[in-house]
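tool_call: predict_structure(chain=1)
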Amino acid sequence: MAGPSKVEFPGQNKQRIRMRGTKHANEATANRIKRELAQLLEDPKGKLPQMMWKGRLRWGRMDPVTKTLNELDKVIKKKNDVRWLGKRMMSRRGDPVAKAFAGSLHAAHDEDFSMVGKFSSGSFGGATFIRRGDGKQGYLAGIQNHSHLTLRMLPWEDHAKRGMYFFTWKGGFVCTGPKPSPPDEWLEDVLARSRFKLTRDADLALPVWVSEGLDPNAVLAFDASSDGYVRFSFKHGPIVAIGLDALGEAAKKESSFIHHLALSMLPPFLPSILDIEANWTPKGWPEGKPLPEAAAEGIDKIIDAWQGLSMNEGLIAMAVRRAVLDAVDSGLLLGETWIEGDDFDAIKAGLASHPGSKDERHLASHMLVASMSEGPTEEFGIRINPRGDIGERKGQALEIMTGTSCGNILGPLWEKWGMAGLAGLGIEGVEAEEIWKKQNKKPQPFGTFLKSLDSARSQAQRVARFPSRSGDFTGAAGKVHDLVLQGLLEGMGKAERVATARHTSIDEAAASWAWLLAAGRSAGQDWHFEVNARDRAGAWLSATKTLLSCGEALLGANADGLEEFQSSWQEAFDALRTVTGESA
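tool_result:
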C-alpha cells in the first residue's frame, strides 16, 4: 500500500539525503579520484600484483591468486562495456575481487565525482573512493587508490590468509606465492622510505645497510658493541643494522620501523622473512667473554614484544641495555660501565660521570674497592638508584645506576665500608673509628662531612687520648664519666644542658649535681635537684673533681707522656666507682 503523499509548500527547501559513510568531495579529492580512475581504466593490468610464482599447489591445484587474476582478465576485456560491468559488479557469485574491480572500472566511466565514500582501517590506512556495485568497501578503496602502497594490498587479504605472500613498493607490487621471497627492489625502497638514514657498503659480498656510526664488517660478524645495534638478517641474504641511539630518538608521531616493514608485505608476518637480534655490551666488558644466558633471554622477550607492536620503538634501546645490565652476575657496574675487580683507578675513572666533588669521588672509590675485594656474600646483588635507595638485583654484582651521585653512593655503603674508605684516606685506628661512628650515628651530607674532615680528625684525635668512651659504663660513676668527657670534648654548655635535664633516679641526679659542682656550673641550678641528691653528690664531689682534673691534664699532655696520664685517668675513675659503691 502506498504511503501518504507529502505536501510541499512554495519556497520550501527540498530535503537531501546522504548515505552513511559518504561525504561531498572537495575539488582536490575529486581531481585525485578522477585521476586514479582514469589510470585504472587506461592500464588496469598495471594495477594488479605481478605473479612471480609459477608452481602448483599440492595435488596440482591452481593457487587462488592465479584464479583471481584469470577472473580479472575477463573483467579487463570488458572494461569499456558499462552494461556488462554493471551486471558483474552486482552479481552474487564469482570472485569478490573481480566484483570490486568491475565496480571500480564502471565508476571510471563517470564524469561527476562529487559524492565519495570514506574508508578507514587501523592496519591498511584510509582513503576516499567511489561506491559502485556490491563489492566490499575495502576492496573498492584498495583498487581505486593504487598509489597508496599499503591500501592496495587490502583486496588480496583473503589470499594472504590462504598462505600467499605479497610485497608492495613504489616501483612494483608482486605476489611470490606460498614462499616469502621479497625482491631486492622492495627492500631498497622500504629502507629508503624509512625514517633512518641507511647506507650500503658496496665492498661486501652480502648487501649490508647500516645507520650512521656503525661498522658494516662488525655488523656482519655480529661483534660485541658498547654502542649497540639491532640487526635484521633477511633470509634471502641482506642485513640491516640500526644503532640503539638512533632507535632511541624515535618521535611519537613517526611509525615504528617494524610497523613500516610489516605494512609493506602481506601477511605482515616479519619472522617469515627475517630474524632480529640485538647486540650491546657494557663498556669495559672483556673481549671474547660471552654475556650471561639471562641477557639473551631478556633481549629475545624485548624483540618479541617489539615485533608484536606491544612495545614503543623509542624504548627498545633502553630496554635492551637494561636486560643486559640486569643479567650481569659479577663485578661492579657503574652506570653502563663494567669493572671486574678492585682496580682503584678504573673505579675512580668510572665515577667521573657521576655527580660529586673530587673528594667524594675519591672516598667512594676506596669504599667500592673494599667492597669488591671482599666479593659477593649473598645470593642477590645490590643496586643503588639515583635516590640513594638500595635494592636487590638477581645477578651477584654491585650496580650503581646512571645518574647516582657520589653522595648517594657513600650513604648506603658507609655503615659497612666507611672504615675502609677512611683507611684509604690515611685515617685508621681509634681515630677512624670515632669519625666513622659519628657519621654513622648522625649522618651529614658527605660534601659537608669531607670539608669538615680536618676538624673531625682533630676531634677524633682528642677522643682517642682517653682509654674509655662515652657509654662504656652505667650507673652513677658512668654518668659522671660521660659528663666529664662531654664537657671536655664537646663543651661545658652541652654537658650542662644534659646534667640539668630530667633525671630518672636519685643516683643519676646526684652524679649530675656532682659534676656541676666540680665544673663550677652549679650556680642557680640547685632547684633542679632534690635535697637527697645534693647530699649524696657532696660525698662524690672530691672523686669527681679528681677525674675532671685528670681529664684536663690528659688533653693537654704531650704524646710522649700520654700513657702516664691515661693511667691516672683510669685510677681516678676506679676511685670514683669505689666512692659510688659500684667498684668491681
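agent: The mean pLDDT is 85. Proceeding to next step.
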